[in-house]
Write a structure and sequence with these properties.
Keywords: Methyltransferase, Transferase. The protein is an alpha/beta fold. The protein has helices at residues 4-20, 27-31, 39-45, 62-69, 81-94, 108-112, 132-142, 205-214, and strands at residues 52-56, 73-78, 98-102, 116-121, 143-154, 179-182, 197-200, 218-225, 237-239, 242-244, 255-261.
Length: 268
């Protein structure tokens, strides 16, 4: 636990060149104009032109730069030096204005030194954070009065189900961890990683919402979605760029999205 940050940073630094070269991220397609964001994110966040947006845990910045293409004034922050270096390079090659900063998310307010209209946290981010109360307080520090947090994430209930059918509970939903995993690969392909250990933390939906509310943000919506972005369970069926349970089967939540605002007067 004491070394979780260093362990995870080494793993993510090792992932960067693999991810940049992968078909999963399709960097060349992005450079040609592809938008990396999901349609429901664009709909739920709404118009961003002329608004300042910070993307926490931005990896190498494709989602961040997609918001820039939509007109936002973007900043991306990540703890991986390798990821931030790649993000800056892609931004320059695409001619997109963006600021990228290397820092731990808990140190974001000090490292960035400014506030924003929108704090965005993308998919697959929260499992790397041991303390959501501290994270939510950081988000509030980063928000301007009248601004909002937007989170799109995999639903935490998914992690307690078996990998094949996704219908049997095999893990303890309330076991927060830390969970130490050893995987030779990342999710984009078979390449062997130099650093294979990760430390992750499981957060229930109630914990996430409660942390946001306790930080003084007003929850505008919490949407649960019946689709996900990859074949998380062997039985899921692809439908364009999303995967769902087969027609006629009972559905379970696979993703969620949350939007919460800081009142215009800056008070809770």
């Amino acid at each position: 636990m004491d070394d979780y940050l260093q362990v995870n940073r080494a793993n993510w630094n090792a992932r960067v060149p693999v991810h940049v070269g992968s078909a999963f991220y399709d960097v060349e397609g992005f450079k040609a104009g592809r938008n990396a964001l999901r349609p429901f994110e664009l709909d739920e966040v709404g118009e961003v032109a002329g608004r300042s947006l910070v993307h926490l845990q931005c990896h190498f910045g494709l989602d961040t730069l997609s918001w820039a293409r939509a007109g936002a004034e973007v900043t991306g922050l990540d703890f991986s030096e390798a990821a931030i270096e790649q993000a800056g390079r892609i931004a320059a090659e695409c001619g997109l204005p963006a600021r990228f900063v290397t820092a731990d998310v808990y140190d974001a307010a000090r490292a960035l030194g400014e506030t924003y209209d929108i704090v965005y946290t993308g998919i697959g981010a929260l499992v790397w954070l041991p303390d959501l109360t501290r994270w939510a307080r950081t988000v509030r520090e980063l928000l301007r009065p009248g601004g909002f947090l937007y989170v799109a994430e995999f639903h935490p209930f998914v992690d307690v189900l078996d990998d094949e059918s996704g219908t049997k509970v095999t893990e303890d939903y309330f076991d927060r961890g830390p969970h130490v995993w050893e995987y030779p690969h990342t999710y984009t392909g078979p390449e062997i990683l130099e650093h294979q250990t990760t430390v992750q933390f499981r957060h229930g939906l109630g914990e996430i919402v409660s942390a946001v509310a306790a930080a003084g943000l007003r929850v505008e919506f919490l949407h649960e979605h019946d689709h996900t972005l990859f074949r998380r369970f062997g039985t899921l069926v692809g439908d364009g760029d999303v995967y769902r349970r087969p027609a006629g089967e009972p559905r379970t939540p696979l993703m969620f999205s949350l939007r919460a605002s800081l009142p215009a007067d800056g008070r809770s």
